[in-house]
Amino acid sequence: MATRPAGKAGTWYPRALPELDGQLDGYLAAVPQTVNGSSLPIPGARIIIAPHAGYDYSGKCAAWAYACLDLSNAKRVFLLGPSHTYYLEGCAVTTYAKYATPYGDFTVDRSTIRQVKEAGEMADIPPSSDRDEHSLEMHLPYLHRRCGSTFSSPDAFPTIVPILVGDNDQAEEKAFGRILAPHLKDPANVFIISSDFCHWGQRFSYMPYCAGNDIGKLRRLSRAEASPTGPPIHETIRLLDEATMEAVVSGKYDAFAENIKETKNTVCGRHPIGVAMAALEHLAGESDDESRHRFKVVLYDRSNLVQRPNDFSVSYVSAPNPPFFIRWPVVTIINIILPPNQPPTPAILGSPTVDHAEASTVVENVPFPPAFEPNRLAYITARPTDGSASHRAPHFIMSVRVSPLVSLLFAYGGPANPYDQRDNGPQYGAPAQQQPHYGQGPSYGGHGYDQNAPAHGGYGGGTVEMAPLAQNAGSMAGSDPNGILNECRDIDRGIDEIDRNLDQLRMIQTRTLDDADSSASSANNRHLDALSSETMALYRSLTERVRSVKSNPDSRTPKNNPQVGRVDRRLKAAIQQYQQVESQFRKRTQDQMARQYRIVRPDASEDEVRAAVEDTSNGQVFSQALMQSDRQGRARAALSAVQDRHQALVKIEQQMVELSQLFQDMDTLVVQQEAAVMQIEQKGEEVVDNLDKGNEEMGVAVNTARKTRKKKWICLGISVAIIIVVIIIVLIYIFVIRGTTGGNKAKRDVIENIAIPVADALADHVREGADTIASDQMALVHQRLHIPQIQ
């Protein structure tokens, strides 16, 4: 049997292993080492919900789910995803024997495939649809990366069981859940549920909005409308996703199905999630502890914060299924630290009981300092009363309590989500106007948004959830006359985000140099690495998008060219600015290494210091100096710090090389295609000239044809006249000549005086007309009608 190729490698995620390693490792490194007090991976967490968009969009969110996933006992991995390539009812299984990834192949468990196929009467996925489907493939590089860190060799990797879940009603999903429940119960099996959340925008035929932040009063926006004057559109998207996430976290399949039915939320993997929830609920009925069979959302992200109706976004969620609820100890809150740009605000806040039965219990009546603003991200430092080590976890404070859902989503440590804004925003005091309710879409069990039913035709194409936006740049002008301008606007937003990242990067670099802990595992270094990886990913994505826009012929039109040139120059300036930031950080790091070397060798010369700083052997010069030093304690600390700084310098050098390459790539595509563009333009001019000549020849041909038709009508008229004359002569002969007594003499007189002159005259006209027609026909034959051939 065949191997399914990694069809999305090189477009939706990197094909080259160094680049793919850097992206995945950067995303995984940004996940905190503990979630809700439990180390990662969470022991026993064998089922996750993770997104399947291009890694530039959803890779960071997916990393949280994969960091939580426990693969230690995995023998096989079930992959459940929606079908984006063809309309599917029921479920379908793969016909391939292996699935390829840039790292290597995964083997399909054909025995288990046959078992579930027979039990669920499942169909086979058409091979062409299987190759084009992205909902399963996008998880394989992450899965391979985690398997590589869990198992000793690829031979020990688990097999996979790929299943597409189609458009099923509630009874069918519960039936499939019961079929998969025994496999889910087996500790040797792992389940990955593939789904993005809300797809908002005209391209998804889903544009609800609620002015009063009440999802019970949704109305549908149109693309031509102005931006709402009430809360921004992304607040509605957040409310819709929160309601769906609450339904998922509840562990109740019916609650989830009812939420989808009421809100029509375009969760593309709602059917795989429904099957998984039905299986978990079935197992919960066999268990004394229902809490063991629920998902826990750990991160929520969005591709874009929508402000205008002509925009779009896709939401992403990571949710593992931990086997138990984490119960936090009773703690005493001793300090609140505001975000980095705010000064610390120490305050004794009392001794509230924080007994998190579900990691979402609120802490009420806690007096916050006057300087602390509600709805701000803060760090709460807590001292457990049972004597265990202190821990620090970010909470999103709303008024004087932690919101249950928001605490559930963000009480896990790590960097704040740059896309998610969970503040309530300005208070819109005016009551919401009565508006028509949104709800004209299909019901939960009807034809699905993601299933490509012919009657809908809404989802089957490439969208932001599947691939980076750069891949759509080539066709944007064809579908939207302002497509290139809209893309330039979106690129501008990305550059704005880079500028914000660079400001934060400078601050974190300073803190990193001042931090006594220079190890890679320190909080400052982890934050620095995560922000650097995120910024580099933005640079790569925006560079590709600018190149794609510049390769579009419409980018050179008078309307588009100024904006394309402006974003091109702006992105180049941003790349140069990042190079300057990294260059300054490198110089400061080298200065610090020089000072540390002098701690070991106070009598070292400048050449020796320079050699130590530029040492490529990761501390060999320092090690030699350490053996010659009489300051062993300080020298060893300096050696450790220098080794850490050296690793940072190596990474800076790699990033600067990549930035230089990105800068060159901005112009490479246009230079490479310049000759082809010139040839196309030359051929276009030749085509225009030939068409003009052809039009002239066609005009001559039309005039000649008209004259010919006119002369034919003349000939027809003459023929009719001759016939009429003949008829008249016959009639005269019959009724006049024959009926008279003049006999033959009278007949001859009539013929000589009337018929013969008329016949002679008609004969002359016929000869003249025939000569003219023959002359015109000969001229037409000798005339050349030339229409040039266009190659």
Q: What would the keywords be for this entry?
A:
791 residues, alpha+beta, Protocatechuate 4,5-dioxygenase, Chain B, Methane Monooxygenase Hydroxylase, Chain G, domain 1, nine-stranded mixed β-sheet, five-stranded antiparallel β-sheet, elongated, disordered C terminus
What does this structure look like?
The chain has 19 helices and 21 strands. Strands 4, 5, 6, 9, 10, 11, 12, 15 and 16 form a nine-stranded mixed β-sheet that branches. Strands 18-17-19-20-21 form a five-stranded antiparallel β-sheet. It has 791 residues and is of the alpha+beta class. It has helices spanning 17-29, 55-68, 110-120, 127-132, 140-150, 170-185, 233-250, 253-263, 270-285, 404-410, 473-479, 483-514, 523-550, 561-600, 606-613, 620-628, 632-672, 674-737, 743-782, and strands at 3-4, 34-35, 38-39, 47-50, 76-82, 91-93, 98-101, 104-107, 123-124, 159-165, 189-194, 199-200, 208-209, 219-220, 299-302, 313-320, 331-337, 345-346, 377-384, 391-398, 401-402. Mean pLDDT is 73; it is low at 324-464, 466-478 and 784-791. The protein is elongated, with a radius of gyration of 39 Å. It folds into four domains: 9-37 and 44-320, 3-Layer(aba) Sandwich (Protocatechuate 4,5-dioxygenase, Chain B); 331-407, no CATH class; 476-672, Methane Monooxygenase Hydroxylase, Chain G, domain 1, CATH 1.20.58.70; 688-782, no CATH class. Keywords: Coiled coil, Membrane, Transmembrane, Transmembrane helix. It is a single-pass type IV membrane protein. Residues 639-701 form the T-SNARE coiled-coil homology domain. Belongs to the MEMO1 family. InterPro entries: MEMO1_fam (IPR002737), SNARE (IPR010989), Syntaxin_N (IPR006011), T_SNARE_dom (IPR000727).
